Amino acid sequence: xxxxxxxxxxxxxxxxxxxxxxxxxxxxxxxxxxxxxxxxxxxxxxxxxxxxxxxxxxxxxxxxxxxxxxxxxxxxxxxxxxxxxxxxxxxxxxxxxxxxxxxxxxxxxxxxxxxxxxxxxxxxxxxxxxxxxxxxxxxxxxxxxxxxxxxxxxxxxxxxxxxxxxxxxxxxxxxxxxxxxxxxxxxxxxxxxxxxxxxxxxxxxxxxxxxxxxxxxxxxxxxxxxxxxxxxxxxxxxxxxxxxxxxxxxxxxxxxxxxxxxxxxxxxxxxxxxxxxxxxxxxxxxxxxxxxxxxxxxxxxxxxxxxxxxxxxxxxxxxxxxxxxxxxxxxxxxxxxxxxxxxxxxxxxxxxxxxxxxxxxxxxxxxxxxxxxxxxxxxxxxxxxxxxxxxxxxxxxxxxxxxxxxxxxxxxxxxxxxxx
Length: 420
Known about the structure:
CATH class of the largest domain: Alpha Beta
Radius of gyration: 21 Å
Number of helices: 13
Domain ATP-grasp: 113-324
Keywords: ATP-binding, Ligase, Nucleotide-binding
CATH architecture of the largest domain: 2-Layer Sandwich
Strand content: 25-35%
Protein name: ATP-grasp domain-containing protein
Distance between the termini: 43 Å
Shape: globular
Organism: Amycolatopsis nalaikhensis
Pfam families: ATP-grasp_4, LAL_C2
Largest sheet: 8 strands, antiparallel
Number of domains: 4
Number of strands: 19
CATH superfamily of the largest domain: ATP-grasp fold, B domain
Strand order of the largest sheet: 13-12-9-10-11-14-18-16
CATH topology of the largest domain: D-amino Acid Aminotransferase, Chain A, domain 1
Low-confidence stretches: none
């Protein structure tokens, strides 16, 4: 039996789903990982059928050398921070499906903004921000209010909205202080263009309009959108609290425009034989504007479960089939009623000891399923979105109903944290 190697950087519930999809495609899943402690190895031994231990999963030549004699059929990952380097491994082993250069570009938000503009797609004014002393110039160039974010960030890490030059300068100082402390390895390596993501940030003009998410599957140069997901509940940190399919009040023509924008962006970045999770704001002036392209992976958290409930399409299995080059998986049908997805975050930062209250959430009449993503020992931080507890729901009427369900679930779930 041929082997597909799944590369992991840190803990992730997605590993189990990827391994099962690999098995369903008729291949043997093995895990490429940095050194594991005994508890992690024991936990993962029931998920995969072997381990390849390397010093650094981001070192593409070293990972390729470790796998070369094992004749891999594919090398893939669902870990955001190593998608491009894993694609480079696949290229070195001649099993690549999507260009590593395209995936590398897609994980540089400023490069994405430039590429989409060159393709004639709408976008907000954007600029790189290299020092608090540049705040006045950046404000003049981009306009205020604006969004400040890491150039290669994910999960809304340290995203800040600013309305004045003083707030813009303060946001620079905050990111320059906090990002070097972030445990995510992506922030501690220069981007391919030499830019230091801990010192240079992205500023974009603020868009005004409802926000949506679209997963896009790209096979043989053709982009297929799975569905449009509405985001009616977003907090002041830009964290997603609740999503819904179909979106409240979205007309068919607006949905088609949003799907078209997501597909055009993915193709403009040169992505093929892969998937992308795309976020779109339907701006009052510009129309649908792509604000994020999370290339090489499906939606995060338990969103794949939401999409499967709503459409019958298993986006994880689709993503794995694209990476393997196997036929698309069979598809089912979605539920005939709106489906919602609620996210409960831990308050504060620290090492997780336990999560309590999920059984009480499961007992709520609207709840279909509760999925806990985090596990004891994991360090949680309110600098970024960590989808700790995910609640799939149905039987709600509108956005107010969904918000009330989120408030009820949040009251029931309890996180015990200790100092990291």
